[in-house]
Amino acid sequence: MSVRGEFSSRLGFVLAAAGSAVGLGNIWGFPTQVASNGGAAFVFVYIILAFLLAYPVLMAELVIGRATRSNMVDALGQISNSRWGRATGVWGFVTVSLILAFYALVAGWMLSYFLQAGALLLNLDGAAQWLVTSSGIRDIVFCGVFIALTAGIVTGGVSDGIERWSVRLMPTLVVIIVSLIVYVSTLDGALEGWKAYVLPDFSRVMNPDLLISAMGQAFFSMSLGVGTMLVYGSYVSKQERLPTLGASVALVDIGVAILAGMLIIPAMYVALHNGVEIFSDSGELIGGDTLIFTVLPALFDTMGGIGVLVALAFFALMVIAALTSSISMLEVPVAYVVESKGVGRKRAVWGLALMIFVFSSIIALNMESLFGLVIAATTQYSQPLLGLTLCIFVGWVWHRDAILEELKHGDEQIEQRLFWKIWPWYVRFVCPVVIAVMFYRSIV
């Protein structure tokens, strides 16, 4: 094992990388997009686009990471042999830190709702009320707790921290989702939700808005562009076949998103059956934070005594999904500070965690003006442009022979395989155009 650490097993890497990809967006964004965009038709388009767009970019990050064995800044500097490469790495470092700053606030809300369910079980009604009453103090406290949980895992390094916890958290997440699916499916109204989710409306497949939505969901759900997969790729053994590993990560990510839909959409229609409003004024299904913090808690309240246990399980699921993503986000700046600046891992982790917590606190105290602005600046503008830049590096700047040499480490016959015949030109010509179009459509 190298000094910088490696994943000790293929399963460890797949669960850690899939955990990075499986975040809150999969669980609250994907299901409502499906139900609002032609049900199973959207799932069909999403799966195709995940492999046509997201998988090639995922592979670009993994190949850069493993070839350079470096953090994002040094890796892009090496393959481009330019300041432009290092500057792009710094841009990714800053973007992922800002994403983590707002993400930790949202995860803190999940944590407070999870604890509220626990407080209700213990008949601590006053504490339960405080936990779900919006305030700057509550937001900062639970954001701090969440960042401390994240930092505690990342201090353990690759195999003893990230891998060890990913191997525990990801199966737990799947068990909770499946258990909740089984329970919710037995309730009145669930059948209508299943119909909305699984019956395809193929007339909408070629709708440009559906295609853009599916493309965006596929790209962003795999946490591409900000260096998390690049850094994780740098911890992969040279003996592994990268195309197979990348496909495994994509499949797990898609699978969890589809499972989340099997839970959320039937649950929303159960809520409708119980008198909870699930449609907005425009007739669309309610999504985002209103779904998670208003619609579903209202559903849990209509369930009686069992509702508290369902709420406890659901918000445990949300905290786990947030944590598997946040540990990969924190690892991006940590890897840079440890390797480029020679700072000890523990000191780097807690120093960066404190810095991100300060950013989060500033956002929490200026929620109306900063929260939406930071989300838009990072996920809507910076992330796709970083993804576009990575495609340019791999497709146009980095020598094709060097890429082939790296892929041969895990598979001597890679040159004869379909992957090598398609992927290099695909990431060179197709991905940049598609990402550019998606970016243009998202801002216009």
UniProtKB/TrEMBL annotation:
InterPro entries: Na/ntran_symport, SNS_sf, YocR/YhdH-like
UniProt keyword list: Membrane, Transmembrane, Transmembrane helix, Transport
Coiled coil start-end: none
SUPFAM superfamilies referenced in this protein's UniProt entry, alphabetically: SNF-like
Main location: membrane
Transmembrane segments: 12-31, 43-64, 90-115, 135-158, 170-191, 211-233, 245-272, 306-327, 348-375, 381-398, 425-443
Topology of the protein relative to the lipid bilayer: Multi-pass membrane protein
UniProt-annotated location(s): Membrane
Record Pfam families: SNF
NCBIfam families, alphabetized: Na_transp
Protein name: Sodium-dependent transporter
